């Protein structure tokens, strides 16, 4: 935990420390029983959350309320995704000026097995000269300023009727409560940071906004989501010029398109990293890639003749090849009976998924032979992957050597 919070904890009274421990327990036990949505090799569903709404105006500028700007930007972002990424399902937490509880926003994402959750907001501070866009992920409050942003956004629970039941007595104005919340770290934090970085890059390089960078803080709307999640602060409506930009149709379109482009780039990169070999019908194989048919016929003959292919051997050097045969959103113990007939099973984490490999070879050809064995055992999606110094690298990198 950060030194900032260690000092804060020491300064708490005995009563506050007891309250802190109570909140920790309630936060942990109020987490969803299912702690990960269905993950796969494709980004198929995104939930876009327009912050605040209805009786909760959010931040209030001189001429506009946060809830109105973020709704327009959220709806525009969704439209851009629908128009340009037809394979992605877009779900909104709200499409009109209505109040939606923070816990319900996360529940909408979890119930729909969303692959990405994007919450859109505007900021406001007492200093009218502060401006810029920033994107948050769930994590430690590394500065007092980040803590104040979280307090502002979490204050929405004060308008909820059953807040004590839903948030375990969480007090959005209590330092002790945020110390407790900072203990929670999302399983998808690295992916969330990746998406946040892409959003900030679009805001600064394409739209020309001041870069306040990727930040961490404890947001109740994020802590129960079971997928990569970010909270976007489009800018400060307490800054006159920034308020005018965000109020304008052009400004809303620019910011929405920036979020869309960042999401698209994230989707492309994620799917490229998790791509599986295409599955072809027998007819397609014969027409498009006749060599595959010959290879499979040879493999079948080999199986009938009961010829044992090369067994896995220790690899030499820092470059090794393995055969990936299974991907899971949840960790499976290597002793699981599903692996009983697979040789030399290992697990590694990649892009928020648990991936399982068999064998360890010094040449790609040896790994390809083992790949055929695994396919004959029923792992039709098995494919060769490369590792250097225990870190996965692309096969394209290997081919260029």
Kindly summarize this structure in a few lines:
This protein folds into 2 domains: 3-273, Zn-dependent exopeptidases (Aminopeptidase, 3-Layer(aba) Sandwich); 308-399, Alpha-Beta Plaits (2-Layer Sandwich), CATH 3.30.70. The chain is 43% helix and 18% strand.
Secondary structure elements and pairings:
Elements: H1 3-11, H2 14-29, E1 45-50, H3 66-84, E2 89-92, H4 102-111, E3 116-123, E4 133-138, H5 144-154, H6 163-167, H7 175-181, H8 189-206, E5 211-217, H9 220-223, E6 229-236, H10 240-247, H11 249-273, H12 282-288, H13 290-304, E7 319-328, E8 345-350, E9 353-361, H14 364-376, E10 383-388, E11 391-393, H15 395-399
Parallel strand pairs: 1-2, 1-3, 3-6, 4-5
Antiparallel strand pairs: 4-6, 7-9, 7-10, 8-9, 10-11
Helix pairs in contact: 2-7, 3-11, 8-11, 10-11, 12-13
By helix and strand content, what is the structural category?
A: alpha/beta
Main beta sheet strand tally, sense and closure: 6 strands, mixed
Quick check: average pLDDT? 78
Low-confidence stretches: 1-11, 17-38, 301-316
Which CATH-level-2 architecture of the largest domain? Answer: 3-Layer(aba) Sandwich
Shape: elongated
Task: Predict the CATH topology of the largest domain.
Answer: Aminopeptidase
Tell me the name of the CATH homologous superfamily of the largest domain: Zn-dependent exopeptidases
What would CATH call the class of the largest domain? Alpha Beta
Q: What is the string of SSEs from the N terminus onward?
A: HHEHEHEEHHHHEHEHHHHEEEHEEH
Give the termini separation: 43 Å
Query: Strand arrangement, largest sheet?
Result: 2-1-3-6-4-5
> In total, how many domains does the architecture comprise?
2
Strand percentage lies at 15-25%
Number of strands: 11
Radius of gyration: 25 Å
